[in-house]
Amino acid sequence: MGHHCCSKQKVKRGLWSPEEDEKLVNYITTHGHGSWSSVPKLAGLQRCGKSCRLRWINYLRPDLKRGSFSSQEERIIIDVHRILGNRWAQIAKHLPGRTDNEVKNFWNSCIKKKLLAQGLDPNTHNLLPSHKTNDIHNNGCNFSHTNPKPTSLFSVNSLMTDASVDMNTPFSTLLSFPPTDNNFSSPTIPIYELLNPNAVWTNQEQNPSSLMGSASSVSSSLLNPSGYDSVQENCMWSGSFQPMEITKQDEMLQPEEQVLKPQLEMKASEVEIKKADKLSDEQNNMDASFVNSNFDFDFTESTLMPCGMFYNASPMDQFAWDC
DNA sequence: AACTGAGCCAACCGCCGGCTT
DNA sequence: AAAGCCGGCGGTTGGCTCAGT
């Protein structure tokens, strides 16, 4: 069974020979690919257009970065995957010179195992049930015991759909409260509405505590209010597990705030990723090194850190968490 | 040296959405 | 509106490599 695009012609399959590569490179560098379906014929190849496209994108493109992934790239993949899920093409956009196929293979062969070794579910980035130890839960954070466990897996799709945020909104705007109302617990505009202007909230959902019970349509960042399920993942970079620390600031938070804070973290990272995405597109420079890239690693790190650890000198300071 | 199993990765498969006719 | 084409994407597979026995 072949692709519909090549079912009518005799096509070669399997690995590409150097001669085929040369033909394809010569043709595309001279003429561009134009319509991929016509490339094989014009380039003198016994392949289908799809195969040519794939070969070019994944292997022959001159701007590809070869070699193993750096720890920085690995970290980006994990961070973005936590937000986007298995959207490899989107993830690859954050890694100049890497392809979706490459990222996907790297994830399946390497990162997945690392996360599992850390006791993390690679799909949800949450701790696997067998790894949810009392050591973590007893570390000054008790609302995890009272909150229901998420009934749905972490889903970026649901997050993007249900809590999509206008990525054109300036980050500072996104984080601004109505200036006349300094009481966090009763802002003039509910914070979750501010963050998610497109969301339609029922009266019941407007109460975050009840919201936590309506799992199916709510992003898991809400349902994982402590955020400490990500702790080990973050700590894996330092090579040793650091138990979650809930700061005094966090303990002072109202339950609503405790719920919202990790969501804000997630929003912040989403916004930053979108920003990086946009900048990347604008630059359209696949040769850009990470040194030159506009992806703010420090920011990503800070925003993705668990609660109580994440907002050093970040715009999050604008929030009066301890008000 | 030969065998074997695991891991990696290039390539394929099938589905989907957008566009054209 | 429907059908066909095409590019893009994520999931899967098959073959190659290499370490271990």
Number of helices: 17
Low-confidence stretches: 133-269, 279-323
- Spatial separation of the terminal alpha carbons: 65 Å
Over the alpha carbons, how many angstroms does the gyration radius reach?
23 Å
- Identify the overall geometry: elongated
* Strand percentage: under 5%
Mean of residue pLDDT values: 57
Largest sheet: none
Structural class: mainly alpha
Counting copies of identical and different chains, the oligomeric state is single chain
Q: Please, how many domains?
A: 2
Helix content: 40-55%
Q: Quick one: how many beta strands?
A: 0
What order do the helices and strands follow? HHHHHHHHHHHHHHHHH
InterPro entries: Homeodomain-like_sf, Myb_dom, Plant_SW-associated_TFs, SANT/Myb
Keywords: DNA-binding, Nucleus, Repeat, Transcription, Transcription regulation
Subcellular location: Nucleus
GO molecular function, one term: DNA binding
Outline the secondary-structure elements:
Blueprint: H1 18-31, H2 39-43, H3 49-60, H4 71-84, H5 88-92, H6 100-117, H7 134-137, H8 143-146, H9 156-162, H10 171-174, H11 191-195, H12 208-211, H13 220-223, H14 231-235, H15 248-251, H16 255-283, H17 297-304
Helix pairs in contact: 16-17
The structure holds a DNA duplex (21 and 21 nucleotides).
InterPro entries: Homeodomain-like_sf, Myb_dom, Plant_SW-associated_TFs, SANT/Myb
Domain HTH myb-type: 8-60, 61-115
Subcellular location: Nucleus
Report what the structure shows.
- The protein is mostly helical.
- The N and C termini lie far apart (65 Å).
- It folds into 2 domains: 1-62, Orthogonal Bundle (Arc Repressor Mutant, subunit A); 129-318, no CATH class.
- The chain is 45% helix and 0% strand.
- The protein contains 17 helices and no strands.
- It binds a DNA duplex (21 and 21 nucleotides) through helix 3 and helix 6.
- Keywords: DNA-binding, Nucleus, Repeat, Transcription, Transcription regulation.
- One of its GO terms (molecular function) is DNA binding.
- It is found in: Nucleus.
- Residues 8-60, 61-115 form the HTH myb-type domain.
